[in-house]
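ARCHIVE CARD
CATEGORY: sequence design from structure
SOURCE FIELD: tokenized fold
FIELD CONTENT:
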């Protein structure tokens, strides 16, 4: 059984997702907010260990964060805004992974359909 993440860690994940969008010059506003997350316990299909998944839905965007038993975290949150430097492309989502204070991240960029 996995322990739920504490509020400080959850808030740090949310801040890291907003910061990843801000690196592109985009704003997610106040989303995601840790208080809006619904927590579920799942079994990791690879390690077969329990993990906790935080899910955000019901606002403008969807997202989730996986809190693995070994302390690693992977989070993704929808952006769905035009890419500020690449005409014809949009930022589908931002991702962060790692551990608090050691975040790495990236953006998922897609082209508009022709």
């Amino acid at each position: 059984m996995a322990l739920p993440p504490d509020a400080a860690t959850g808030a740090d994940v949310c801040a890291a997702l907003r910061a990843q969008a801000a690196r592109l010059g985009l704003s997610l506003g106040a989303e995601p907010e840790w208080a809006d997350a619904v927590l579920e316990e799942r079994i990791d299909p690879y390690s077969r260990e329990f993990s906790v998944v935080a899910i955000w839905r019901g606002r403008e965007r969807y997202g989730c964060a996986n809190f693995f038993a070994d302390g690693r975290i992977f989070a993704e949150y929808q952006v769905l805004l035009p890419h500020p430097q690449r005409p014809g492309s949009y930022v589908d989502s931002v991702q962060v992974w790692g551990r608090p204070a050691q975040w790495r991240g990236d953006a998922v960029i897609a082209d508009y359909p022709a």
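CARD ANNOTATION: The first helix runs from residue 7 to 23. The chain has a mean pLDDT of 92.
SHELF: design records, drawer C
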